[in-house]
Design brief:
alpha/beta, seven-stranded parallel beta sheet, 8 helices, 16% strand, binds zinc ion
Length: 222
């Protein structure tokens, strides 16, 4: 399993970063990105803290753990700048907390995220429109299919818009607690429940993460 969107007690999750990594080793994960909620103020603290635990875990355990962020409820006009700052501070995966149907995220957040060169994933994009999906298709920002209750309400719509536009998707847990880490079985149910066929669901679980990892590794070398 691969998961590019998780939270620890550094924001509103329940586990310490290193325990989340330990739990994900036990859950059979190959790769985990820890992407706590950030704004301008806690960006540096989150990234320096996560980097230390990821580095320690990577040396000892059979997993690739990478530090990341989820830019959350920041003004849309600051998204690109903060994503760039996050990259400079060592964020490997940069998620933007998209316009989920369950929270009053600032309208225009989806557009700012898919238009930024520094964003990797637009998380839970909610009722994303056609134009934003086609910008994502050309910018390479992945649209998230969310396994998290409340954000998952719009998965069927996200899948339809992404497929029509030719945008790539990725499935993440958005786990805030250990029992929310993904099993292959549950991830398949979420993918199929969002309207994908069996082969599209397998592609989402197996190929999209590899695509994202290649992109991440290019960014790390650049
Ligand atoms: Zn979020
Ligand atoms: Zn999240």
């Amino acid at each position: 399993m691969y998961d590019f969107h998780t939270h620890t007690f550094l924001s509103d999750g329940v586990l310490a970063p290193v325990e989340l990594i330990r739990r994900s080793v036990e859950a059979g994960y190959r790769v985990i990105a820890i992407t706590d909620h950030v704004g301008q103020g806690n960006l540096e603290f989150i990234l320096t803290t996560l980097a230390k635990d990821c580095e320690m875990a990577n040396k000892r355990w059979d997993i690739r753990a990478v530090p990341g962020v989820e830019l959350t409820h920041v003004p849309k006009d600051d998204i690109d700048r903060l994503a760039s700052d996050a990259r400079d501070m060592g964020a490997v995966v940069i998620n933007v907390h998209g316009e989920t149907v369950s929270e009053p995220v600032e309208p225009g957040t989806n557009r700012a995220a898919v238009s930024s060169d520094n964003v990797d994933i637009l998380a839970h994009p909610g009722l994303i429109d056609k134009e934003d999906a086609s910008i994502a298709a050309s910018s390479g920002v992945l649209l998230e299919v969310s396994a998290r209750r409340s954000h998952a309400y719009a998965n069927g719509h996200v899948v339809r818009m992404a497929k029509n536009a030719g945008a790539r998707m990725v499935l993440n847990s958005d786990a805030h607690a250990p029992e929310e880490l993904l099993s292959r079985e549950f991830a398949m149910k979420v993918a199929l429940g969002a309207g994908l066929s069996q082969s599209e669901a397998v592609d989402l679980l197996d190929e999209s993460p590899k695509y994202l990892l290649r992109k991440i590794d290019r960014e790390l070398l650049a």
